[in-house]
Amino acid sequence: MNIFGFLAPLLGWIMEWIYRFIPNYGWTMILFTLLARLLMFPLSIKQQKSTARMSAFQPMMQEIQKKYANDKQRQNEEMMKLQQDAGFSMTAGCLPMVINMFVIFGVIEVVYRPLQYVLLVSKDVINEMVTLANETLGTSLDAAHYTVQNALINLVKQNPETFSDLLGDKLDSVVNFNFTFFGIDLSQVPSEVGFFSVAIIIPVLSVLTMILVNVVTMNMSGQQMSGSMKVLPWAMSIMFGFITFTVPVGFSLYYTASNVFALAQSIVLKKMYNPEKIKQQVQEEIEAKRAERKKKKQVKVVAADGAEVVKDVSQAELDRIRLERARQMEDERYKDE
């Protein structure tokens, strides 16, 4: 198992449960994707809300970066002040993306090893099947290779009697395992079967839908990407495009379905948290907080001669007075050291 695929046992159990009711690997993958999207929808709502709010702060942040371009310390201080005044976090929308990445790697692991995670054949039996296939059928399978379990399923379909003793009551479920989806064998690896195979359709669709998701998401977020952030979505598209051509087609089907559901989800989320409406709301919140900070408050201040004086001060002045008082008390406490 790859280090990021620790969710594979759980995801495999869910897929195995769906497969019992709909014995087709392709439709199982699509229904699993829909279920995963529904379960993560609350997190997606949080991410959309955070992204929409960030679009309101972006011009302010850019203004600070431009104004203090030559003073990084002051720039950081002003950024911190903006975050405190506005009450937002730069990393608030990261959690859904991190979870989605772990789900993707978990799905890849399941697609690599359907014999283990969906059909629930133990690792020991799988290793024995590899040995038996190499000795009896003249194959040269590598037990550690990521496509070996897909190959084993196809070998069992062709030679059920060879594996009957090893698989026992699991034999029928492996023989009847439905790998096809609209005539496409989801166990095939595009880079191995050639670019003129019909199996290439699904990986191409996964890349095209991912590009469409990037375009729609950026337009709906209300943010203006710049620098590396502008390039990142396209770099991710290239990376996953490469992955889809080097792994079984089942993963590409999952990713295509995920992208289609993501598009529908983006439309719903924009109606819930429209960036333009959130911008106006944030501006009103900031203005209200600034007005509150400028309001005068009556406080007692100790003058230089020790007398208490009542003064009208703003929140900013009060914060400064408290800071000075704290420093005086600190100096007084440690004056003998």
TrEMBL record:
<keyword id="KW-0653">Protein transport</keyword>
<keyword id="KW-1003">Cell membrane</keyword>
<dbReference type="InterPro" id="IPR001708">
    <property type="entry name" value="YidC/ALB3/OXA1/COX18"/>
</dbReference>
<feature type="transmembrane region" description="Helical">
    <location>
        <begin position="25"/>
        <end position="45"/>
    </location>
</feature>
<keyword id="KW-0813">Transport</keyword>
<dbReference type="Pfam" id="PF02096">
    <property type="entry name" value="60KD_IMP"/>
</dbReference>
<keyword id="KW-0472">Membrane</keyword>
<keyword id="KW-0143">Chaperone</keyword>
<dbReference type="InterPro" id="IPR047196">
    <property type="entry name" value="YidC_ALB_C"/>
</dbReference>
<comment type="similarity">
    <text>Belongs to the OXA1/ALB3/YidC family.</text>
</comment>
<feature type="transmembrane region" description="Helical">
    <location>
        <begin position="195"/>
        <end position="219"/>
    </location>
</feature>
<protein>
    <submittedName>
        <fullName>YidC/Oxa1 family membrane protein insertase</fullName>
    </submittedName>
</protein>
<keyword id="KW-0812">Transmembrane</keyword>
<keyword id="KW-1133">Transmembrane helix</keyword>
<feature type="domain" description="Membrane insertase YidC/Oxa/ALB C-terminal">
    <location>
        <begin position="25"/>
        <end position="271"/>
    </location>
</feature>
<feature type="transmembrane region" description="Helical">
    <location>
        <begin position="231"/>
        <end position="255"/>
    </location>
</feature>
<dbReference type="InterPro" id="IPR028055">
    <property type="entry name" value="YidC/Oxa/ALB_C"/>
</dbReference>
<feature type="transmembrane region" description="Helical">
    <location>
        <begin position="88"/>
        <end position="112"/>
    </location>
</feature>
